[in-house]
Model the fold of this input.
Amino acid sequence: MGLKLVGTPIGNLSDISKRALEVLNGVDAILCEDTRQTIKLLNHYLISKKLISFNDRNSSKKIPKIVEEMRKGAEYALVSDAGMPVISDPGLKLVDVCHEQHIPVDVIPGPSAVVSAIAASGLNASHFVFLGFLPRGSKLRKVLKIVSQLNMATVFYESPYRLKETLKEICNISPASRVFVAREMTKVHQTFYRGYPCELTDIVKPIGEMTVVVEWKKENKNVKTC
Done:
């Protein structure tokens, strides 16, 4: 009975833990953002299990039945397309309801794009704020201005189609800040970029999944501006 939160690889399938595989193989069903993505992992490890689509579009409708089944003794695993579930995905609602209904929740930790990017960056992120995906337009500048004043690093996910716009906004706010961009972490084309925001707008190849770490600097330096 209960819900298992299972961390899955962010790229390299070998990064999954032995315990995660045991849990995925032992539950009654697996809740996943995209069944087409999760089935690749299961097929790789020869796991045959019922998959249930559970995402932003359908989670609210499915939660009551899932909770009812768990109260009857069923055990579900919750996974995201990559990394730890519940971080920037609809699993939060289900976990909240499980705690309210006194349904056991367990966590099987695994890879995290946020933590991996911070570790690889070499930037001072002992204190940081995670923003998920940033808003666009005028809201983007407003959010970045607010976090730039918090005296802590900022970590967020970014689309390759919007990365240059975001880097330019960071440069306009604080050109002396140091930025780390992790592209396609743990995958074949993994690439790390580090430098000042306006320098990176001309260097980073905006392809694939991006995780960005910003170490904000208030002092002015003789660096390139946009």
